[in-house]
Design a protein that fits this description.
- By secondary structure, the chain is an all-alpha fold.
- The protein has one domain.
- 63% of the residues lie in helices and 2% in strands.
- It contains ten helices and two strands.
- A two-stranded antiparallel ribbon has the order 1-2.
- Helix 3 crosses helix 7 and helix 7 packs across helix 9.
- The protein starts with a helix and ends in a 6-residue tail after the last strand.
Length: 251
């Protein structure tokens, strides 16, 4: 398992570029600059999520899964990771839907043409899902499932559906709701709420991804993030701004 220091050491050396790369002009509108800048932040958020999941996996309790405080907390945090990634993908799909004209801009299309084939296919699948267009691409189908089924944004009715599914209709129906009822935040956790959220995810996703939602979501995020990384790189370079190596004397 890598730690924060080891992960940071994997980063390439610092480079800089002209700040005008994200300032619009007659060739590239400001709205397009804003859009790519937002993609860059989404890339970082996805990268942080992947690292957090890797750190969590390294803290997995030993032995078989059982009804215990450590397993309950671990599974609850893992579920939180899934929900955060689903919400992030929802935000990304919404961003594309709200910026359809930007995505069709000639300069942006020239950026997409420069992507490696796999990254270009990932981006096109993302755009199709954002516009509710179904294709034969398996990535597109998974994105549409996430867009239309999985997220519930703290919807009380949806959460109760998950509660019913977990405690009354699943294999774990004989399992009672658990709680750590302490006098402080450190000593308290509502495991039954985690189970309700898990039940909702399973209820919505089980037809297409019954057992591998975590793995599929991680693969999806990595695939989309590689495409976004290439878009940001080619956007900056396509505007004619070269990267410069950074040294302390640069300032």
């Amino acid at each position: 398992m890598t730690n924060f220091t080891q992960e940071s050491e994997l980063l390439a050396p610092l480079q800089t570029f002209e700040r005008d790369a994200f300032v619009g002009d007659e060739r590239v509108p400001q709205e397009l600059c804003n859009f790519v800048l937002t993609l860059a932040l989404i890339y970082n958020d996805c990268k942080d999520g992947i690292f957090s999941n890797m750190m969590l996996t390294g803290s997995k309790p030993k032995g078989q899964v059982e009804s215990s405080r450590d397993w309950g907390t671990y599974n609850g945090i893992k579920l939180h990771y899934i929900r955060l990634h689903v919400a992030l993908i929802h935000e990304l799909l919404g961003l594309i839907e709200e910026n359809q004209q930007i995505v069709k801009h000639e300069f942006f299309k020239s950026v997409i043409k420069k992507l490696p084939k796999q990254d270009r296919e990932s981006w096109n699948a993302l755009v199709s899902a954002a516009l509710q267009q179904q294709t034969l691409n398996s990535l597109n189908r998974f994105l549409l499932m996430i867009r239309n089924k999985v997220s519930f944004h703290y919807d009380p009715k949806a959460l109760y559906q998950g509660f019913r599914h977990h405690f009354f209709t699943r294999d774990a129906a004989s399992e009672p709701p658990f709680i750590s009822r302490g006098a402080s935040m450190q000593s308290s956790r509502f495991y039954f709420a985690d189970a309700a959220a898990d039940g909702y995810l399973v209820l919505q996703a089980e037809q297409e991804h019954p057992n591998n939602l975590m793995t599929d979501l991680a693969d999806l995020t990595a695939s989309l993030n590689r495409a976004i990384m290439q878009i940001v790189h080619h956007f900056i370079q396509g505007r004619g701004f070269a990267y410069q190596d950074f040294t302390s004397q640069s300032l």
